[in-house]
User: Fold these one by one.
Assistant:
Number 1:
Amino acid sequence: MPVERRFTIQVERDDATGWFVGEVLELPGCYTQAPDMSSLHANVYEAMIAYLNATEPDAKMPANFVEVWQGSVPV
């Protein structure tokens, strides 16, 4: 049974093109772009699969990776 892993995706809008750019923070160099959010979601998923399939099983996370966490504060 496959293990599910969670990743953090940072999304920004490119000022020059207006496209959305998504970067998977835990996977160095894993990023993609798309003209709309639904396309970006699909592209990011494909990019993560391609990244993980291209790496050795023991090299799926950077050696210095510790953890990812999210927090919130009232504003």
Note: The chain has a mean pLDDT of 82.
Number 2:
Amino acid sequence: MYRKIIVPVEMGQLEKGEKILRKAMALLDEGGKIILLNVTENIPGYLTIDLPADFTDRGVSDAADRLKTLNDALGANAEIVVKVGAPAREIIAVADELAADLVIIASHRPNLANYLLGSTADRVVRHANCSVLVDR
């Protein structure tokens, strides 16, 4: 069905990541590609003074290791990509850059903050140039 699927995974929600990775594997065309993606958010400058100099680098490395473990556990043969920035913006940028035809993203029940600020899944749905499957 799909040739290139982006699967963004939040490190605090690995069980949801496993679920959407399984969906991606089921929807992938033979010879297609899955990109397991994590976006590590930027730390505001005023907070970085209190953090170790390699804090972001360690976060990126840890995310890559955890995605690799997830990938290996399911035998997904996915490409692993870790970006630093605003999650929705980076997910959309990776989807555009790699010409993805589907993003599968996990979501959660909205709370008050989501209504005021919007969730990552909401932003991806509104702004992605490809199809988006939201898994609740």
Note: The CA atoms of residues 72 and 78 lie 9 Å apart.
